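Exercise: predict the fold of this chain.
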Amino acid sequence: MSTPTHWKKILVPTDFSEDSLTAMREAQKFQQLTQAEVVLMHVTEPPFEGLRIQTGELQHEVKISATKRMEALVAGHFHGNPHVTTLVKEGRAGDVICDVARMQ
């Protein structure tokens, strides 16, 4: 596999599915070759507030859970690697991933 050695960052969105975990493992291999920063990111849906449904508190719990899962991924796959960060963002996944990619 030929990997560009000039990569500085690798953005890895995850929904915790097996496919996204495969992508994360590939990013880990690239990181070892390039020493690029790896940014693991998970996007949660925004809370729904309407009629009698208030989901803000539930959304807060979802964000906490996602943060813990992200920390577990880092501990399990990138233990002790200072070049790995995590992000948990809220919004529509496709939009948020593109926005973060543009800013990175």
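Check your answer against the key: The mean pLDDT is 87.
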